[in-house]
Amino acid sequence: MNISKKDALEWFEFLSTVPGNKEEVCEEYKDVIESILRQIDLSMRNHHKNLQSKVTKMDTLKGRTFFVGDKNKFPKGCVSCLFGDGLGGVRKTNKCNLKCKFCYYHDNIDNQEAVPDQMWEIGDTLYYEEDIDFLLDVQKKPSGIAYVYLEPFLEIEKYFTVIEKFKNAGVYQHMYTNGTLGTEEDLKRLGEAGLNEIRFNLGASNCSDKVIEFMRLAKKYIPMVGIETPMTPEFFKSFMEKKDLILSTGLDFINCAELHFGEDNLNNYQGEVMYISRRGYISPVWSREITLELMRMASEENWPIVVHDCSNHTKYSRELNKNSKQNHQFGFHTYYSEFDRILFHLFIPFLQDDRYPFVIEEELPEKYKLENCKEDILELCEEEEEEIYEGFYDYQEEEEI
After folding, report:
1. DSSP code of 256?
2. Whole-structure pTM value
3. How do 224-230 and 253-257 pair as beta strands?
4. What is the Rg, in whole angstroms, of the alpha carbon atoms belonging to the chain?
5. pLDDT digits over 126-161, tens only?
6. Which residues are within 8 A (CB) of 355 and not within 5 positions of it... i.e. 6 or more apart?
7. How does DSSP assign 72-91, residue by residue?
8. Where is 263: in which H helix or E strand?
9. Please, what's the largest Cα pairwise distance for the chain?
10. What Cα–Cα distance (Å) separates residue 345 from each residue in 4, 16, 32, 103?
11. Contact 201/214 with Cβ under 8 angstroms?
């Protein structure tokens, strides 16, 4: 079924106003709803291909991701993610000194669970620091690990000995930071401990001069230095104002992360034009548009760095690769939406926007025309509400007993 954009808009506008839990409606009218989501995805895939066609010298890593620039500067942490054992996260810090609008933890950033003293979270499991050597000896070593989650420079002194353990085991290591904290001595000690790569979320500081200079310092001590930040209009504006200064730091790459939404940052972007990729991540359309514009400029102007399209497609490839290493059945993947329900209202701005036409449109069968379904949908929602209330009263009676 290739529903038209006009019909899709009518359906989602109506469904967004219907009260109650819509689980039964989604099941009963699955063909229509899934057709709309698929049409949105296909529309954006076509749009992205058109934008990619304007990027000269575009390269690819076996179709898993796209980039422009010297392949030798492509971040090896990403190679591990896309071809190795996946992105092995090592976590210690549970706080951040900033509160970014795009942060995936935004609404709950002050309520993140702490890792106990002298322990580290590896593979969703807590280990004492002294257990890491034993873990590396017993289990297969990962191709790479990443120090992820909020701001490590708040307690950077705790990281040096752990980084040295992984270095001695021959594991490639990279770290994420907003770059607003720390000293040259910290960078020197990170390099001496064995950190291979550091990634600056330059958008977190709005491309501050202080962070740009910290990146320049980092290049003195750490082999690979890059930017990894969600692509937003604010970042693009500030980057363009300081482009030459940033490129002069000697950095190796920019990972242009396509922003996607979860429960904790979605409210900051209500009303934006959004799409859904492969029934998984939900993103604003402008995020990858900014990436592809930066790639076009980098290619035409011969920037001395790699500009990497870290898109939803790349994250889909990441999940396929990770699952293949875990002996799952052929075709299994874990690229899912951050939400357990369909948020119809999110896609209304996209369906109202003439810049993103559906590729193929067909007339709906009579049984799926909205005017023929409204009454049934309202009845289904009423039934659901009755079931919810019945369950509530049953619970109340049990409590009284």
Report:
1. E
2. 0.93
3. parallel
4. 24
5. 999 999 999 999 998 899 999 999 999 999 999 999
6. none
7. GGS-HHHHHHHHSS--EEEE
8. none
9. 76
10. 18, 5, 16, 22
11. no
